[in-house]
Amino acid sequence: MYTKSWHSVGPTLDECIKCNICTSYCPVSAVTDLFPGPKYEGPQAQRFREIGQPLSPDHSVDYCSGCRVCNEVCPTGVKIAEINARARAQIMAEEGIPLRNRLLGRNETLGKVGSIAPALANFGLHNSFSRLMAEKVMGIAREAPLPHWSTEGTFGDWFKKTQAVRLKSDKKVVYYHGCATMYYEPFIGKAAVAVFEHNGYEVLVPPQNCCGLPLLSNGEFDAAAGYHQNNINKLLVYAQAGLAIVGTSTSCTLTLKEEAPELLDMHSEHANTLTMATWDIFEWLRERHNQGELKTDFREINMVLPYHAPCQYRAHRVGKPAQDILALIPGIDLRESQARCCGIAGTYGYKKEKYQIAMDVGAELFDFVADQGEDVEMTACDSETCRWQLEHGTNLPSRHPIEFLAAAYGLYDLEKRDLVQGA
Amino acid sequence: MSDLLIIGAGLSGLMAAYTAVKAGMRVNVAAKGLGSLHWCAGTIDVLGYTAEQPNVPVKRPLEQISALVETHPQHPYALLTNEHLAQTLATFVALSKDIGVPYGGANNPGDNLLLPSPAGAARPAYLAPKGQLAGDLSRTEPMLIVGFEGLRDFYPELIAENLTKQGYSARAAFLPKKLATNRRDFTNVQLAQGMDSKEQRALLGPALKKLVRPGERIGLPAILGIKAHATILAELERETGAPIFEIPTLPPSVPGVRLYTALRSYLQGLGVHLTAGMEVLTAKTVAPNGVPGTVQWVESATSARPLKLLADKYLLATGGILGGGFNSEMNGRVWETIFDLPLTVPQERADWFQASFLSPQGHPVFSGGVSVNKAFQPAAENGQPLYANLWAAGKLLAHSDAIQERSTEGIAIATGVAAAQALSS
To answer: What is the ipTM of this complex?
Structure first.
């Protein structure tokens, strides 16, 4: 009988043997004195956060970026990042949530509102005066790589518009697009749909909500619980029918699987059914490949490609499936980054007081890309905010691995970031 | 799918990975966290003490091992001939040079080194990183032990005083913290990373030069850089005119981190896939015709469903109680965590420990583990392997009290290399 090794978060602090490996590998405490390190903020401080303790011992826990490198290197399985996330939420509950955090947590609402008039919204947000005001009034760093709303319609618009030509098949898969694909980068969704259909799968895109991760990392747990419950309500029927729910945003899929249920203590049977049905897209593609079902009619893509497996991806603990699949494409000279984190950590690096920390953390990755030589034209990474940070830090375009796969099938133009007409 | 899946990324797992990949196998390594090298002093302890003479450091460990295996025929060292053991250690020394973290031994070949511990004790070790060799207490130069103000867990006065009491000539000195770091709070690993920067260490050499007297050697906490360690050592010796040695500190240990980092990246260059944060929980085995059975796959924890890890052969290098190779309950039950292999550990809690806490005989619970046959396969008493495609190495193995003996790294290297040779032949 298989039993999970995760206990609920709290008791894992008893597993801490105080070896400080986490602090030695923490990318944030490596660059700033403002964050003393995971051991001190996590298992150590947690002993003072017991019920009845009037106030949290240390506000510096807000400088934890939530990258989970500590969990990854911990030899005894302490859920340090989760202990920190809960501590942050406790502080927010005690002291109130700043307007900025409320806004940054509401990616879905921002996406919807901006998409009403995306050109105007882009102009409104992306000019130096607005960015200065956003920094002064709200504390959103003016240099931070905020996304642009899609001016060609949302992913949902495109999917509806092309219904007539979408593949119908007995083999079906549910696509979880997440907010970034819906409102900012619909081309990621187009590439994913093209890859699914090329492999004979009909794509279903049922109504869905934000996964709630931005709320979780900004300390707004109650609202996040609402989102997760909505997703359970909307997606459960598909999970119960045995369909895979596959996402292109690796932090969204991690939240649906593990972060939301664990941080919010939502361990109902329904929540667990959703967990077990959810896949990151390359995790799912690798499973197809292992079953001998993945088409490998690849065209050559000749390039040196630095690839960064983001920390949110590593937190899935499924190895590096995107790397495994990209390695099948002839011509790609994949260079694996050993960098711990790009620094941005969702909305962390957007914040004025954390922008420079995020850039200093990312330096390890930016230097790695620079070391790969002059010929590098673009980079690859599975997570949207990480790609935006990578572009910001390297001045090179960054792509989702699914874009390379779609391109290798001859279905997608990597330069234009759109499907090849007539393919 | 790989030829070999190694579970565990401590010294035995990494040495096995090196041996197997050199033998042409495709090797994956899955580790729960980062390996136990982060906890060790970075030295290779082969045999430091025996139960018969618990207070006398072993002088010539390989010779002593010949005697040890006579009286302890089940000891992990008894699985190898003495020549084979010497060969595996030579393999490690050659590898250490290739990865840029060179190791060496005592001036008189075959002797143990005696190195100062952070408490000022004399610690027997067979091999040590180049940066610790000048600390050998068989050398006669008086020692200047230098610490930094504010650095926790390194007290030069304590070290010098204890060394003096044992008849070695040593004195202590402090340098201001700013010579080591501008950080408010730090770990030893962060200090070492900081030292990689030339600006950070610019003032250290001149400050040491002022402190040191002619003829002295200088002992420093092990924070002299990670990537630039060799350069820093050479720089400081040139600037001070004195031999420099490092004294390992409390975990995480910088010499351990250097060895782990260099080994890992070297292995990755050879095509070994090493994944940390991948905790193997359970195994799927079949035994249609009784013993030996077959391991079909193992499963690791993920954010959702377990992940199947497939290989032709499996090497268990998960360590002992500390490394997570076995676990225990209050009532005395002790079990191997993945395959539930039989353990030699007493299953009654009352039988775990001797009456005396510091008993020179060691506690039975610490010498328990998995019994293997001559081919390093977990085996029944008659030597029959339990699974045709499963091997084991390192601290998991039964019949030695490695902490008491000071033999942890020697056993890790010897059994890691020899197990991989056995399974790849």
So the answer is: 0.90
